[in-house]
């Protein structure tokens, strides 16, 4: 590492820390500029920016991992780049090409290399790319200018004392409309989830499960993560719906379950009335990789899957394989790892 930073790696959480440099690129007159690394972590934008009034903005989240040998690698940044392209199209923002997105991430990681936690700590460097509509505009229409930026923060291992299952309840609120923006990573989806999350937390749940907005009979998301279940005959099952955010972790687990664990996999409806079909369940996403689901409260009854205190064996194996790939201990499928040199 080039510089020493005074960070207590063992006690990192998921909190903002100002790292040294961030990438910023501006779109004006139909094109993105070259982009540059800057020290200033403050943005000055017009009070009439569409990002502030009409939610014309989006974000991504991915991590850089340090391997046992001390190398640094990104996990499937092309998937995040392509998801951001899909999101930008949905809300009429200019696309950031896959190449520009990955180049920006690499520049930010390199410039903040000393913030990439050591392998042994289990901590990682979280990258937050985002696009916002700026410039002065008061009508409900796309912004005249945009900013694409990427910053990074070191974050702690999600499970400090090892993986622990947590419980969820069912939200009576929806996070997305049937043909709305559920599959896009726009901030409005998250603003709408704050209140349901608070209601769940007040009742002692880690977060809530969102059902499909049209019929309220099928599982869509678990907080800000995708759902998966392991059926009693050992199939990996995850919901399919146009209003779910296509999770990079979920699609990676589908591949791992099939190709590494030799399981059958299914992307299909998961009915809330049929939780009994699963022997294990989990929530998956970049932050935790997998959060084992102890139980889901439905109709005033807690449905427990494997156990409220122990992680199921299939969940554990999925986690170990994916986390192993991400930090370079398990051989990755072709194209999943981008080394930061
Ligand atoms: C609503 C929602 N679902 C699922 C996920 C998991 O997606 P990923 O695995 O790409 O982090 C996230 C996190 O990005 C999310 O915000």
UniProtKB/TrEMBL annotation:
<keyword id="KW-0808">Transferase</keyword>
<dbReference type="GO" id="GO:0052654">
    <property type="term" value="F:L-leucine-2-oxoglutarate transaminase activity"/>
</dbReference>
<dbReference type="InterPro" id="IPR001544">
    <property type="entry name" value="Aminotrans_IV"/>
</dbReference>
<dbReference type="InterPro" id="IPR043131">
    <property type="entry name" value="BCAT-like_N"/>
</dbReference>
<dbReference type="GO" id="GO:0052656">
    <property type="term" value="F:L-isoleucine-2-oxoglutarate transaminase activity"/>
</dbReference>
<comment type="similarity">
    <text>Belongs to the class-IV pyridoxal-phosphate-dependent aminotransferase family.</text>
</comment>
<dbReference type="InterPro" id="IPR036038">
    <property type="entry name" value="Aminotransferase-like"/>
</dbReference>
<comment type="pathway">
    <text>Amino-acid biosynthesis; L-isoleucine biosynthesis; L-isoleucine from 2-oxobutanoate: step 4/4.</text>
</comment>
<dbReference type="GO" id="GO:0009097">
    <property type="term" value="P:isoleucine biosynthetic process"/>
</dbReference>
<comment type="pathway">
    <text>Amino-acid biosynthesis; L-leucine biosynthesis; L-leucine from 3-methyl-2-oxobutanoate: step 4/4.</text>
</comment>
<keyword id="KW-0028">Amino-acid biosynthesis</keyword>
<protein>
    <recommendedName>
        <fullName>Branched-chain-amino-acid aminotransferase</fullName>
        <ecNumber>2.6.1.42</ecNumber>
    </recommendedName>
</protein>
<dbReference type="InterPro" id="IPR043132">
    <property type="entry name" value="BCAT-like_C"/>
</dbReference>
<keyword id="KW-0663">Pyridoxal phosphate</keyword>
<dbReference type="InterPro" id="IPR033939">
    <property type="entry name" value="BCAT_family"/>
</dbReference>
<keyword id="KW-0032">Aminotransferase</keyword>
<keyword id="KW-0100">Branched-chain amino acid biosynthesis</keyword>
<dbReference type="GO" id="GO:0009099">
    <property type="term" value="P:L-valine biosynthetic process"/>
</dbReference>
<dbReference type="GO" id="GO:0052655">
    <property type="term" value="F:L-valine-2-oxoglutarate transaminase activity"/>
</dbReference>
<dbReference type="InterPro" id="IPR018300">
    <property type="entry name" value="Aminotrans_IV_CS"/>
</dbReference>
<feature type="modified residue" description="N6-(pyridoxal phosphate)lysine">
    <location>
        <position position="185"/>
    </location>
</feature>
<dbReference type="InterPro" id="IPR005786">
    <property type="entry name" value="B_amino_transII"/>
</dbReference>
<dbReference type="Pfam" id="PF01063">
    <property type="entry name" value="Aminotran_4"/>
</dbReference>
<dbReference type="GO" id="GO:0009098">
    <property type="term" value="P:L-leucine biosynthetic process"/>
</dbReference>
């Amino acid at each position: 590492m080039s510089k020493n930073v005074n960070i207590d790696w063992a006690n990192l959480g998921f909190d903002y820390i100002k790292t040294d440099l961030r990438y910023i690129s501006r779109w004006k007159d139909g094109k993105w500029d070259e982009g540059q690394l800057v020290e200033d972590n403050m943005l000055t934008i017009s009070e009439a920016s569409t990002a502030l009034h009409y939610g014309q903005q989006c974000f991504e989240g991915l991590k850089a991992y340090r391997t046992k040998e001390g190398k640094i690698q990104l996990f499937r940044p092309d998937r995040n780049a392509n998801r951001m392209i899909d999101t930008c199209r949905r809300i009429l923002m200019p696309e950031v090409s896959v190449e520009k997105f990955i180049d920006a991430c690499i520049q930010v990681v390199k410039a903040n290399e000393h913030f990439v936690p050591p392998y042994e700590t289990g901590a990682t460097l979280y990258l937050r790319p985002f696009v916002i509509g700026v410039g002065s505009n008061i009508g409900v229409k796309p912004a005249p200018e945009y900013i694409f930026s990427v910053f990074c923060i070191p974050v702690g291992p999600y499970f400090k004392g090892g993986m622990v299952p947590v419980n969820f309840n069912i939200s009576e609120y929806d996070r997305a409309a049937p043909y709305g923006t559920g599959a896009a990573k726009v901030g409005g989806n998250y603003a709408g989830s704050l209140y349901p999350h608070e209601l769940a937390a007040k009742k002692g749940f880690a977060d809530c499960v969102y059902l499909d907005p049209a019929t309220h009979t099928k599982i869509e998301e678990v907080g800000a993560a995708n759902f998966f279940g392991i059926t009693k005959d050992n199939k990996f099952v995850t919901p399919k719906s146009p209003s779910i955010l296509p999770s990079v972790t979920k699609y990676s687990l589908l591949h791992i379950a099939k190709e590494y664990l030799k399981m059958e996999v299914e992307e299909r409806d998961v009915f809330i009335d049929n939780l009994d079909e699963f022997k294990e369940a989990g929530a998956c996403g970049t932050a935790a990789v997998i959060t084992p689901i102890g139980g889901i409260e439905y109709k005033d009854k807690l449905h427990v899957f494997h156990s409220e205190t122990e992680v199921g064996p299939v969940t554990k194996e999925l986690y170990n394989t994916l986390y192993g790939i991400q930090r370079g201990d398990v051989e990755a499928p072709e194209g999943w790892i981008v080394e930061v040199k």
